[in-house]
């Protein structure tokens, strides 16, 4: 009997096919029954079981290129203006189609609940982990697969990081846009609406805890007025720059983990909005 292998899988977002590293389906299909009902038997009766809510949720993993991040950012809750993606108030639904080899699955009205862009020293490229909430999952057989743009991946070497315009060394980062979406079912098997929750945007980094960098802990520990942050990732002529005009540090004192471990200062910043200044923006250059 033949087996299915992932090499033949494909994924299309918003009508175009892009590379992906992993697809984790976390959907749940509930059953309605009352476990407290007393019917004179230990086993549940088939007549007392009904279909319940379809909680359709999944997570996708992508190696970042300029076309891929340009596709994902508007779906994460940003507005594009000449390559600058600025935080807005909306999360736009999109259709996502996955060829799982055994069958083609279509996820309707998928909204991005959370996106994590991360990178670190090593051999893996910069990646995006995206969690989606969809209305429904149906089988699709008539998909016309349209290729999206292919470009070079972003790697961690060459990444630059600035706190208040001062350059800092870092060995890893995670940029998180958590939209905290609120799904509602009403009297329906599928989601009837998805509300906008209180978005939380974080930039977590790790810098050396040396005499030259010690003030980054002491100076920003008690400051809540906001500090400008810039994280720039380069790939030849392409670049992606994450800007947070008003970042507030969630302080964490550095740990000492052993004689052979480097002492590093973990810094997690939360992006805040001020008046007309958006909480964050990302500039993508696709040369």
Kindly give the count of domains: 1
**Secondary structure: number of strands:** 21
Helix-strand topology string? EEEEEHEEEEEEEEEEEEHEEEE
Largest sheet: 19 strands, antiparallel
Low-confidence stretches: none
Q: Using the alpha-carbon principal axes, give the shape.
A: globular
Helix content: under 10%
Q: What's the average pLDDT? A: 96
Count, helices:
2
Alpha carbon gyration radius: 22 Å
What does this structure look like?
The protein has about 290 residues and is mainly beta. It has helices at about 65-75, 215-220; strands at about 10-15, 15, 20-25, 30, 50-65, 80, 85, 95-100, 105-120, 125-135, 135-140, 160-165, 165-170, 170-180, 180-185, 195, 200-210, 225-235, 240-250, 265-270, 280-285. It has 2 helices and 21 strands. The strands form 2 sheets. The protein has a 19-stranded antiparallel beta sheet that branches.
Descriptive key words:
287 residues, mainly beta, 19-stranded antiparallel β-sheet, two-stranded antiparallel ribbon, 2 helices, 21 strands, globular
